[in-house]
Every structure is written in C-alpha cells, then in structure tokens.
Design goal:
The complex is a heterodimer of chains A (229) and B (400). By secondary structure, chain A is mostly helical. Chain A has helices at residues 2-5, 12-42, 47-75, 81-107, 119-127, 136-147, 151-159, 166-181, 184-196, 203-227. Chain A is globular. The chains are: A mainly alpha (229), B alpha+beta (400).
Amino acid sequence: MIMTMLPQIGNPYLASLVLGLFYGLTSCTSTCIPYVISYIAGIKAGFRKSIIVTSIYNLGRVIAYALIGVLIGLFKMFVSEAFFFTYQKFAFAAFGITITFIGVSILLRKKPPSHTCNEACVNLNVQEGMNKKFDVRAFLMGFTRGLVLCPPFVGFLLYSTTLSGLGDSVIQAALFGVGTAISPLLFLGGATGWLLNKAPLFSGWISKIAAVVLILLGFNMFLNIFVGR
Amino acid sequence: MMGIIAEMLQAIIAVGIVIAGILATIVGVKDRTKKISCLRVFVQTISLSIIFLGLIIGPFGLTKYPPIGNAPRDMLIGTSILGAPFPDGLSVPTMACYYPSGRTMTCVLWQIQSYIFPFWDAGKGWGVNYVSSGLERLAITFGLLMVMSIVLGRFFCGWICPFGFYMDLITRVRKIMKVRHRNLSERLNEGLRQLRYLIIAAILLLSFIFGAEAIVGIHLVSGTEYKGFIYQYFSAPFCQICPMRPLCVPIEGALGWMNLNYVFSQTTGQFYEIGYYVTSLNVLVLILVTIGAFVLRRFWCRFCPLGGLIAVFNRFVPFKWASVVRLYKEEEKCTKCGICKRVCTPQVTEVYEEKGGDVTTSGCILCFRCVEMCPYEDCLKINVAGKTVFKSKNWLNLSK
C-alpha cells in the first residue's frame, strides 16, 4: 500500500522519511524488539537508560543505512542478485556474532561487590558501559542490524534505484533510517526497562535469561545462514 | 416512559438499601476494632452482587448462546454505557471473571490480553461483534484502568475484588478453626510483590507474540491462526492459571446458572488439561492459592498482577496527587508499637517503618485494618479526597 502511495509524494526525501515512518510503526518494531528488550533486560536498565539505549541502537541503524546509501551511491551495489545474497550472509553473520558476543559479555559480567561501591567497582561499572552515556554495545547491535537488508529496507532500495548521485542516496537512506527510528520501539524499550526495574530482586535472573536469549538468537541466526535451516 | 420510571425507582431503592446498610454498619457496630472490617464485608458483599447482578435480576432464558445455560450471559453495564464498540462489559480492575454468566463487568486483564490476541481486528469475538479495532478497545480499557487505578488505587483489592473477598472468607474460616496464621519473611514477601510485575510483562509479551500476525503481519507461533489450538484454548494466557475462573464457573454450574456438561466439553486432553472455561491448571492454582490463603492472609494479593497494574498507575509519581483514597500517619503520635505491622494482611511494613505523611504503598490493599487497630489517637488516618473520614482511636484506653 505504502509503495503505491510513494510516487504521489513529489519530494523524494519526504517520501523516504514517510516510508521509514511507516515501516517503523510496523515491521521494524516487531523485528528489532526481541534484541532491544533482551539487551535492556540484560543490562538492568531503568526507564531513562532504556530510552537512551534504544535511541543509541536506532542511531546505529541510521548510520548503517547511511553507509549503505554511500555504497549504493558510489558503486551501485545490490544490482546483482548473487551479490545481494552473499552480502546478506555476511551481514547476518556480523549481526549474529555481535549479539552472541553481547549476550556472552552480559552473562560473564563480574558482579560488583554488594557493599558500598568503591573506586574499583565504579571503574568496573564504567568499563562495562553501565555508567557511560554512550552505550557502545547498543550502537554495535543497531549498526550491525542496520547492515542486514530487511524487507522494508529492500523495499526502500527498490524505490530508490532511480537515485542518481551519492548525496541523494546517503540523505534518503539516512532519512529512511530516521523515519524507522521514530517508532513505538522507543516507548516499548522504555516501558520494558521501567517494568523490569520494578522487580529488582529478580534482576539478576532476568539479566541472565536475557543474555541467554541474545546468545540463542545469535546462534539461531548462524543456523539460518550456514545450515540453511 | 413508565418503564424508565420503574427502572429509576429500582435503582433509587437499591442505592437506598446500600446507604442504609453502610450507615447501619457504622452505627450498629460498637467495637471500634471491628467497625471498618464489618463495613468492608458489607461493601464486598454488595460489590459481589453488583458484579454478578445478572444472576439476580435476569433476564433468564434469553441467552445468546443457549448451551452455556439459562442465566443471562452478558448483562453488561459496559454495553449500555459504551455501546457497541465495547460489548464485553465495563473494564474494572478487579477479578470480575469474563467466563461465568451474569456478570455486569469484566476483568481488565482478560480484555487487555484478548484485545491484543485473538481479537485485534474488528468483527471477531466470542459471540460478539466488535465494531471497533483492537487498538481502540485497548485504548478504552487502558483509559478506564488508568482512571480507576489513579483515583481509587488498590481500594479495589481491599473492598471490591471478589477474589479478595474469597480469601477474607478463608481467613474467617481459619479463625473459626482457631488456627494461627503464618508470616512470610520480608524478603520472600517482597519477592512475591515484585513477581507480579514479571507476570504482567509475561502476559503482555505472550499476547503480543501470539497476536503478531494481526498486529504487524508476522506469524510467529503456529496455532495462533483462526481456530488454531492457541486461538481456541490459549488465547488469554493468564486466564489459564487464574484461580478466579475455576472458582466461579463450577459454582455457577453447581447452582444451575451454567451448564456444566457444556462447560467441560470445551476442553482438550485428559483431566481438562486445557480448555475454554476451566483447565486443570486453573484448578491446581486455585487449590494452591486456597491452601496458601489459609496459612497466609491475602496470599494471592501479594503477587496478583491485577493489583500490580493498579499499583503501577496509582503509585506512578506524576499521578500520585490524583489519588483519592490515602493512608496518613502522624509521626509524633506513633510509638512504634508494631500493631499496624502485625495486623496488616498482605504484610506491608511501610506503614510501620515510614516516618509519616502519606504512607500508602503499592503493596497496601487499603483495607485499613491498621487504622482500626492502631491504639494511638489520630496516629493513622484514612483520607478520602483530602477529608479525614476515619482515624485511629485510643481503644485500649492507654494513658496519654
């Protein structure tokens, strides 16, 4: 439906944004939510931290889309079907490795001492990205997820095959990403963190389960790619 | 015209009886340590009657779906007030189970689950036709839940919920049998209290996963398709373990309001493993909760997800100011005697521990047992819309 509407929108930049907004409301949220929620539960983030984490994840996706826009603008990639499938395999593998690694890192996280947080514990937390404003793991997860060409983005690419220059493709891909970022995912991520934070006695277990879920999701991705399941 | 006048007169008489009953309880009960408890039992009885009003006033023999039984299936206040967009009844944050006949209201948890899956789309429903989308119905449900929770909070749990009443009755039986209750450790009690948020998260997550096809067009779980196993038998995940359903459906069956043969035919597997009306899992949970309630006062309320939902909205900082029913404590009048802590049915410790001011917490079911038992003059107060309606009295005649 949305693809038929797009030609009616005269401005291609606006059309990219609308397409992104539409997919952000539908498939992007459902596709990304297992990873984002698992990660939020894994790092025991509260409401504010969850919103920040989701935003960073979305930023990673937007940058990945812009990068793909650069590749399209420069090399007119994804024109050949064989290249598309090979690329997808590697993109999935990268995402699978990233979420497996993140899951393992959460699972193996050293438990800070239960008494007052001394300097060493503060340093440990900082190292783990707990107290930092910018969450590298969330960014990496978003970035590698963005590199995977999901059906909405493929839809966008089909729409944007007429793009001429490098600037056009980068801006439109980024606008598509921005559109998908303004989605219920932000709210759902925040709500998850808020709700799970209400059960601090279970946070350790929730974190471990979330880490295992991330690892399983990663393994599942590998199985899908290499075993052809 | 005459019909409307007759209905209005009936309503006025009913309201009059309720008010007279409340006044009689307040005036008639002389023991100050039982005044609120007696009033609460009266209000709980009235609430139960209102929730299942259809079983009292009928009309009988007009069932939409005759195999279920002779009692009115949907004598629904919600349909009258909200009309066709909301045919399942008024959402109330109490365990006013959806499944038995004669109810006037509906448990908000069933509505939240079912409107996500399987009734996200307009049209489909268990014997009803939804003219509005699932999202619109969810908006109404959440709107009503939020307003009621913000205004009255867990007053619903202490005074209105039929399952809370059931547990209070078990407590009375225990007292008659002269068996002493037990208390959980504070950590375990806190664990149970936090567990309800995980149950809420699980309910929402499962409903969303089941309903993913209708909501976002991705089929995640097999059996969620129309007439699939999950669609027919597992559509409201929490209702499969809720102890209220096996409590009211068999009672209604035994009393002839529901057809038990039909009820038990809507199941699969041996021992009613899973089914539309009653499941063996339901019955098991009910048995466990009943045993639990015999030993621990208000056992279910400690981890009830519905209570958790109410608390989430009522204790949410931006909405706290709008809460009408509150419990206040005056620090300088408290001697830390610990009576409030001992008499609290869900073992809330904040009333005892907190210094003063508004001591209403998410675990408190607002039964006000602490207020009527506190022996220090004006130490604990019940405030309704800013006005003190009841305060603790020196019933032990302690020297001042």
